[in-house]
Amino acid sequence: RDGMDGGDRARARQHVFLLPEYFKDASKKMKSGLMFVKLVNPCSGEGTIYLFNMCLQQLFEIKVFKEKHHSWFINQSVQSGGLLHFATPIDPLFLLLHYLRKADKEGKFQPLDQVVVDDMFPNCILLLKLPELEKLLQHVTEEKNPEIDKKKYYKYSKEKTIKWLEKKVNQIVAALKTNNVNVSARVQATAFFSGDQASSDKEEDYICYAHGLVSDYIPRELSDDLCKYLKLPEPSASLPNPPSKKVKLSDEPVEAKEDYTKFNRKDWKTEKLDLLTGYFLVAAQRQRRDK
Amino acid sequence: MESSDEAAVEKCRIHLRPGTLRDAPPATLHLLPCEVLVSRPAPVGRFFTPAIRQGPDGLEVSFRGRKLRGEEVVVPPGLVGYVMEEKGEGLVGKGFSEGSSNDNEQEQLELVEPPEALERDFDRFIGATASFSGFTLWGLETIPGPDAKVRGALTWPSLAAAIHAQVPED
């Protein structure tokens, strides 16, 4: 069967993934509990595929690397597209924040199971199963603990959230320095000097860059507030961009071609993730038809 | 209005079978600098692999008459590479159907009644068919340099860790 009859069906699509090593050990103990689910993207508000590990009680985001003109040879097969999927842990607080901000429009304290409700993405109830939620929520909410029942009541706090985000930014800045990520416009030039390019970057470049990274997980409005709070230069004209295009922010100080931020934005975008979603959708429908 | 099909997919969970992560045999992967439009079996071991040579600066091979240069790229520490396929689509070769032993059968049994199947009808299953700890990265004429985008992508996990680690409390 080599396609001469025109009935050659491409083999099942192969997805190339990088997963945390410890999944393997955890898998010894679990029979199930690893699943891909569609949840809200806290930046765009659109649906995005996440990986939920019930055994480790951890949420992972899926990023897909895709560059034009690539394909895989996998053993004795060819897989077009050359996609490389990464599953990396995501702070669930970003997703919870989406619901807390939404619920805040009602302006009152509410128990969490009334906050995290979503007709579009019913799998959001999985978020309530994550460990140490109460501790996490302290970063972004005010809480009340009335005597009447055992539930805690929460209300979004913008002040606390901004402070929490500032800590995130500081944490990212430290990592950027450790990893020697080029954050300035001098990327091309520094490629010629093997020396200490990191130390030649300005602190503000790092903060801008980190702000850009964290902005991928929060809505535009909050990103702008954080920008002001950090006293960063105004982002380029804040047009009412559609959510998926909002990420112009930290492109501003960086024009170098090989800049990581741009790479990060252009090649990792949500529409790329939808390739996976789209595939799953088609596969699910086909499967049902076949039954 | 959303079709009921789409609504179902929103609820859909795609389960990754943990056992397959444990048993996935090692695979050889090459990332080519060109688009091959169809995904299908290919005699890589007949035409491509035997033609790979160790050149003065890296590996050399040719594909469709073009010269490729490449080198081994290692999966970042703490991660393992997997090739995953969805079950039940006429898998060629080592799919799940041919999987070894009772372990597989046990899992099959278990799948009939997964403990948390809320939307059982629409739940789907995916599993690893192979694993890898590195792959060969190929460039046209030259080895993809240190600023190749794939290399940038491979630094993502360490950056992601910093973005998503819990912050210290006040």
TrEMBL record, chain A:
Does Ribonucleoprotein count among this protein's keywords?
no
Gene3D superfamilies, A to Z: 1.10.20.120, 2.20.25.530
Q: Which domain of life is it from?
A: Eukaryota
Q: Does the keyword Transferase apply?
A: no
Annotated Ribonuclease H2 subunit B wHTH domain ranges read: 94-226
Print the keywords alphabetically.
Nucleus
Looking at the record, the residues that make up the Rnh202 triple barrel domain are 31-91
Q: Where in the cell is it found?
A: Nucleus
This protein's assembly is summarised as:
The RNase H2 complex is a heterotrimer composed of the catalytic subunit RNASEH2A and the non-catalytic subunits RNASEH2B and RNASEH2C.
Explain the purpose of this protein: Non catalytic subunit of RNase H2, an endonuclease that specifically degrades the RNA of RNA:DNA hybrids. Participates in DNA replication, possibly by mediating the removal of lagging-strand Okazaki fragment RNA primers during DNA replication. Mediates the excision of single ribonucleotides from DNA:RNA duplexes.
What is the similarity comment for this entry?
Belongs to the RNase H2 subunit B family.
Name assigned to this protein? Ribonuclease H2 subunit B
From the broadest rank down, the organism's phylogenetic lineage runs: Eukaryota, Metazoa, Chordata, Craniata, Vertebrata
UniProtKB/TrEMBL annotation, chain B:
Show the InterPro entries listed in the entry. RNase_H2_subunit_C, RNase_H2_suC
Q: Which Pfam families does the record associate with it?
A: RNase_H2_suC
Q: Which domain of life is it from?
A: Eukaryota
PANTHER family referenced in this protein's UniProt entry, alphabetically: RIBONUCLEASE H2 SUBUNIT C
Q: What is this protein called?
A: Uncharacterized protein
Source organism: Felis catus (Cat)
Its encoding gene is what? RNASEH2C
